[in-house]
Amino acid sequence: MAAFWHMGGYAPYVWSAYAVFFVVLLADYLAPVFRRRRVLRELHARMQRQKSRDARKAALHATPPDSETDRTSTSPSP
Asked: pLDDT at position 58, please?
């Protein structure tokens, strides 16, 4: 069994190759997970910004402009 772990003197190369392989495999698995979370977070923020922008725009258009009666009532009479 010791010969298997020693691998004829090439153990550092072989075991480091296995380690690199598993690290890359893990990174390939986790990268899409993190990317999906980031994209969903960005989309949520974009939707919130659009929602607040639409609300501001609706509030701006909901207020009636000054009418003639409002302007004449605040101006001094001649």
From this structure: 87
> Rounded CA gap, 75 and 72, in Å?
5
- The reply to whether the predicted model has a pTM over 0.90 is no
Distance between CA atoms of residues 75 and 28, nearest Å: 72
**DSSP structure string for the chain:** -HHHHHGGGTHHHHHHHHHHHHHHHHHHHHHHHHHHHHHHHHHHHHHHHHHHHHHHHHHHHHSPPPPHHHHHHHSPP-
Distance CA 47, CA 53 (A): 10
Q: What is the pLDDT of residues 8-32, one digit of tens each?
A: 889 999 999 999 999 999 999 999 9
